[in-house]
């Protein structure tokens, strides 16, 4: 029987560590992905992810359930990412291996996907990651929360502590900037040509 | 949200694209997009960019974080629980104090200084202790003599059974053990007494030697003073003669 986040949180608050470990299993991948996309480095993302759950566990007695557990967790992770960026004082660097291991590529290949397609997908992933670096931290975070974590405008506004309209503006400006960056890297949108 | 839409309202277009606007506004925007190439192109561009974003896949390392809380230590009963540091310190001080007072109480009286005496110092022996040792020695000797006489008594030859013989053998063995124990105790008492006597003699000898040294030093000082007096007299007499 699968328990809801709220049930697991209630059990965790009463001292059941196993329940909290179930929450970790459920949320460690999304939190890691968020940290990775914001920070751009796997090791840093791993550290932030671990720290997020540690802080969440310590702060659990103060969590009254006024927000969703996942939103609360995302907020902790984003605060840690922000601290991390300020502390490191460096632009997020996307970590992409330069030399490609064919065996690793084969292991990643989706069904009905050729090696060529996989290589192209990884190249595009690197280009997108690189283009995301050109955005401001606020724009990047808004896009990440919206595109990869499916949050609503209001949730992002709560998370970022800004008005709803600001979230829309950040999304629009971020996507427009991203489009220009992709076009600059040879990934422009195919144009429709009128038939004569 | 107002039900009106103005061309070029990027916020409304973003809300339309993400399907987060009111149904009425959605209808209005959809109608507008059919006839406005600029807004339609904007929406196409944003959607295409969103499509590109899906290619950005983070690595999938094995995380397996787990929270582990150390098991609480079993609660010990109060009499087995370790004492706090301050209680241990108090206990140590108490033991030290008791030991110190017992040691002072049992300390032998100090021998008066006889440094100036030329006679050897009298050996003062702790009378009570010496008497105790002598009494104990005499008692042990008497008991041992009694045991020897008992052991020397011939055993009457009777037609005894195996059990009787075994009992007699056990009795003899017990007597032998008892005798050995008493002899050992006696030897220990003798050694203790000899050690104590020797210690006191050594102490007296040391005191005597120190006194002799001090006496010799006094004699030398006295002789030096006499020589100085003679020289002074000689100087005074020679000055008067001039």
Topology:
The complex is a heterodimer of chains A (196) and B (242).
Chain A: H1 5-13, H2 17-39, H3 42-59, H4 69-88, H5 102-108, H6 115-132, H7 137-147, H8 153-160, H9 164-184
Chain B: H1 10-17, H2 23-35, H3 37-53, H4 85-105, H5 127-152, H6 162-241
Helix pairs in contact in B: 2-3, 5-6
Subunit arrangement of the protein: heterodimer
Give the N-terminus to C-terminus distance of chain B in angstroms.
Answer: 141 Å
Low-confidence stretches of chain A: 94-100
Low-confidence runs of at least 5 consecutive residues of chain B: 113-127
How would you characterize the largest beta sheet of chain A? none
Biggest chain-to-chain interface with counts: A-B, 43 and 29 residues
Order of helices and strands of chain B: HHHHHH
CATH class of the domain at 1-93 in chain A: Mainly Alpha
Using only C-alpha atoms, the radius of gyration of chain A works out to: 19 Å
By helix and strand content of chain A, what is the structural category? Answer: mainly alpha
Through-space gap between termini of chain A: 63 Å
Give the CATH superfamily of the domain at 1-93 in chain A.
Answer: RNA polymerase sigma factor, region 2, helix turn helix motif
Overall shape of chain B: it is: elongated
């Amino acid at each position: 029987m699968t328990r809801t986040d709220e049930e697991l949180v209630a059990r965790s608050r009463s001292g059941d560590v196993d329940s909290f470990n179930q929450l970790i299993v459920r949320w460690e991948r999304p939190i890691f992905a968020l940290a990775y996309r914001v920070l751009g480095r796997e090791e840093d993302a791993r550290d932030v992810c671990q720290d997020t759950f540690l802080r969440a566990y310590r702060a659990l007695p103060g969590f009254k359930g006024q927000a969703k557990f996942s939103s609360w967790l995302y907020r902790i992770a984003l605060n840690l990412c922000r601290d991390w960026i300020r502390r490191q004082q460096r632009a997020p660097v996307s970590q992409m291996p330069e030399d490609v291991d064919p065996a690793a590529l084969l292991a990643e290949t989706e069904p009905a996907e050729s090696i060529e397609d996989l290589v192209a997908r990884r190249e595009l992933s690197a280009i997108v990651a690189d283009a995301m670096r050109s955005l401001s931290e606020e724009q990047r975070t808004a896009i990440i929360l919206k595109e990869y974590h499916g949050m609503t405008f209001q949730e992002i506004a709560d998370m970022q502590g800004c008005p709803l309209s600001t979230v829309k503006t950040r999304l629009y400006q971020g996507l427009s900037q991203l489009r220009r960056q992709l076009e600059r890297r040879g990934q422009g949108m195919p144009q429709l040509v009128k038939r004569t | 949200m107002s039900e009106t839409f103005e061309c070029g309202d990027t916020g409304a277009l973003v809300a339309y694209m993400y399907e987060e606007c009111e149904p009425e506004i959605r209808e209005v925007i959809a109608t507008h997009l059919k006839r406005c190439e600029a807004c339609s192109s904007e929406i196409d561009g944003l959607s295409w960019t969103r499509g590109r974003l899906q290619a950005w896949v983070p690595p999938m390392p094995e995380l397996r974080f787990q929270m582990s809380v150390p098991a609480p230590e079993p609660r010990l009963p109060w009499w087995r629980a370790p004492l706090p540091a301050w209680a241990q310190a108090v206990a140590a001080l108490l033991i030290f104090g008791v030991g110190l007072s017992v040691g002072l109480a049992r300390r032998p009286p100090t021998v008066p200084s006889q440094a100036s005496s030329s006679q050897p110092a009298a050996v003062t022996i702790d009378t009570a202790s010496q008497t105790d040792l002598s009494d104990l020695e005499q008692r042990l000797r008497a008991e041992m003599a009694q045991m020897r006489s008992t052991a020397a008594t011939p055993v009457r030859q009777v037609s005894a059974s195996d059990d009787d013989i075994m009992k007699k053998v056990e009795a003899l063995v017990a007597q032998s053990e008892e005798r050995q124990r008493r002899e050992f105790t006696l030897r220990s008492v003798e050694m203790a007494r000899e050690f104590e006597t020797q210690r006191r003699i050594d102490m007296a000898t040391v005191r005597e030697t120190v006194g002799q040294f001090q006496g010799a030093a006094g004699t030398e000082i006295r002789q030096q003073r006499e020589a100085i007096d003679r020289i002074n007299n000689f100087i005074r007499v020679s000055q008067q003669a001039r």
